[in-house]
Design goal:
The protein is an alpha+beta fold. Helix 1 runs antiparallel to helix 2.
Length: about 160
């Protein structure tokens, strides 16, 4: 009987040589590359500088309007910085297919990402998981199943 590795969650199913999520299915043997990278930073809001400068320009004739414009520009820059700091916590898991298509998943938990990569590596190396199961729960950050690959990797 062939060995089977699978990950089965409400969001992602890895079973045999197939990976499924949200109505999409790929054959793992069609994967040419799996990589990770930090989530790109948002571009600096250059218009916020113009808003601040406009506030400085109108502060003498209209102080409330000048203060409001400078405050708006400062809040815009603060929000940009805040959201970029949040994005630094996320990692993009990219899966490139032989067809040239690329799939991207944003994962926040670094330890969970490491486990996903280990399981995918073993499934690809061994050519599937046979009659056993492996489940990856992206929301719950859990990997479960009865596949020997999980026992071999001490994930269970």
């Amino acid at each position: 009987m062939a060995k089977e590795k699978s990950i089965e969650t409400s969001e992602l199913l890895l079973k045999g040589n197939i990976m499924c999520w949200e109505g999409t299915m790929i054959q793992l043997s069609n994967i040419s590359c799996v990589s990770t990278a930090p989530l790109d930073e948002l571009e600096f809001p250059k218009l916020s500088i113009l808003v601040i400068l406009a506030g400085l320009g109108v502060i003498n004739p209209m102080p409330p309007m000048g203060i409001l414009l400078m405050l708006a520009g400062g809040v815009w820059i603060y929000a940009w910085n805040y959201f970029n700091n949040l994005r630094k916590l996320d990692t993009v898991l990219s899966i490139s297919m032989n067809s040239g298509n690329n799939l991207r998943f944003i994962i926040s938990n670094k330890d969970f990402l490491k486990k996903i990569l280990q399981v995918l590596e073993q499934i690809i190396i061994e050519g599937g998981v046979g009659n056993q199961n492996v489940s990856i729960d992206m929301r719950g950050c859990k990997i479960e199943g009865n596949a020997s690959v999980l026992n071999d990797m001490k994930i269970l």
